[in-house]
Amino acid sequence: MWDMKPPKVLVGVDRPDCEAALQYAVAEARRRGCGIHLVHVARPILASRALDDIALVDGELRETSRVLLARAAARTQQLIDAQDPDDERLSVSTEVTHGSVVAMLHSLSAHAALLVMEHQGMGRHGETPTLSVTAGVAAVAQCPVVAVPDSWRPTAGIGGAVVVGISDPERDRAVVEEARNEAERRRTDLVVVGPATDPMLAEELLRHASAAELLVVARHWRKHSIGAPLGRTARELLRHGAVPVLVVDPAARKRRPSADRGPSPSEKYALATLPREDQGP
Predict the structure, then answer these.
(1) Mean pLDDT along residues 195-206
(2) What is the C-alpha separation between 87 and 65, in angstroms, rounded?
(3) Residue 5: band (very low, low, confident or very high) from pLDDT cuts 50, 70, 90
(4) Pairing relationship of beta strands 145-149 and 245-248 according to DSSP bridges
(5) What is the dihedral of CA 106, 109, 110, 112, to 10 degrees?
(6) Which of 100, 157, 236, 238 is deepest in the core (most CB within 10 A)?
């Protein structure tokens, strides 16, 4: 399954209603011409009960996972059949795995083109569990991660721009290149916001969100391990953004040969430069 070229779009399925993630995944697979792999990570069972009880619970969890993925796969195929039924590249596969959601998706992401996760944003008492898990995965994944709010739905017709935020032009070149690729696949404008420090950058990106189709941002710049922080700007976008947010590892240097070029007049890119906080007006 993972040997397929091009790599598939990986989707984390953690609840019955993940319509936003599936809608995004199908649209992205159509743009990339690749398949979709749906994965559900079943939490480990605590061994604090009798072995017979553990076996019973394990069986129930496996059946729940199977039904969950079957419904998600059926819905994904329904979306494909409605939008692009003749494209044989748009295959759908499923997998159930066990363990920590963050650790397992970190491992599986090494084989994916993109990891799609749906979250419920902020709740009355802070971050919802789905947002916390999404942030944890985005901080360590081995491929770009797109966090999709559960209220998001694709819009018909011409979409908005791809908006990328940078804090350091040299360090964030891989992030800008990923955003450029996204804009080209969508045939839309690329807006570069920055350079700016975290508080200003998050504020400006959220200001652009209403007219954006996708926000792109770097995760925290350092060697990541399980449990590593996501970064202030990325977390603020996940908490308050109403559009999908693509989180990119700024250390990733696997760019196309043309990655070092800047926006040219022949490309549909707009540049929005912000002053640094230590600069005067």
Answers:
(1) 88
(2) 28
(3) confident
(4) antiparallel
(5) 180
(6) 238
